[in-house]
Amino acid sequence: MNGPISLSVTRDTFAMDGTFTISRGSRTEAQVVTVALQSEGVHAWGECVPYARYGESLDSVCDQITSMAPQLADGLDRMTLQQALPAGAARNALDCALWDLEAKLSGKPVWQLAGLTEPASVITAYTLSLDAPEKMRKAAKDHASRPVLKIKLGGQGDMDRLRAVRDGAPNSRLIVDANEGWSAEDYDLLAPVMLELGVALVEQPLAADADTALAGRERPLAVCADESCHDRASLSEVSGKYDVVNIKLDKTGGLTEALALKNAAQEQGFRIMVGCMVGTSLAMAPALLVAQDVEFVDLDGPLLLAEDRQTPMQFEGSQMYPASAMLWG
User: Fold this and answer.
1) What is the predicted pLDDT for the residue at 328?
2) Alpha-carbon span 41 to 319, nearest angstrom
3) 156-186, pLDDT tens digit by residue?
4) Residues designated catalytic
5) What CA–CA distance (Å, rounded) separates 238 from 229?
6) CA–CA distance, 74 with 259 (Å, rounded to integer)
7) In terms of Cα–Cα distance, which of 249, 241, 317, 327 is closest to 281?
8) Is residue 214 classed as helix, strand or coil in its secondary structure?
9) How far is CA 125 from CA 37, 78, 295, in A?
10) Least buried of 5, 30, 138, 316, by fewest C-beta within 10 Å?
């Protein structure tokens, strides 16, 4: 794919189904950046979600993307893109749009171009927003039929929240996400309770810049690196501290690096989680390719929205099906 490519960038807002709260704050809408590419009469696209935790904003990400217009006009390809932009949201949207463009120009699906097997449906976790214990119990009860629930924690009263969720959903597998909200002592205190309640995994209990406390520490409950692991360069830093790595395309800078990170992490003995920011089906479509045959899948972004793309991905409860070619790939 060497022909000139034209670029357009838009900012899009999608209402959420209620208020979504984590330890860092609350939101009622998802703000995403949509990249559209055109070449040889073919239109393709990708999506990213700028994240302030990583120093990103809508403005900064849009500026990064638009700075690539001259190189795209010269026929920029995915591999050159990996060197042209750092890992992050901007590169993610461009990388996924370039995959989509290559698929449409070649008439072959992305999974085939990437040398993968044809994707199957997966079971995704469903996230319960951080709230008072009684409200979280009700939310858990409302979603007790889902096989996997992910619980947002990270503050005083977490033990009560945990017990309330387990009471509301006695049969669901539980994942806990502290979003860097605990100390090492909090983890030591809560780990036995989480094990008692059947929690399968805890994500990023400590701040990324304080996670050396996990090195050599007994981890009776598997600990997953989220904010501490972005791409393959992160693996040496998380070795010995974490058991699982959470692969998100907005961190890796796209599907290209996400697939490479998955392979490298598995080779080094890490278990794999594939997660997402709160985005639309357009962001989940490429992530589902990475989520094949992994232990933990958390691609529920569209389930948390009140509105989605015109050709959304299909869900039956928590069963998530591959995207149609009309959406992406």
Assistant:
1) 98
2) 35
3) 899 999 999 999 999 999 999 988 989 988 8
4) 152, 248
5) 7
6) 26
7) 327
8) helix
9) 32, 30, 11
10) 316
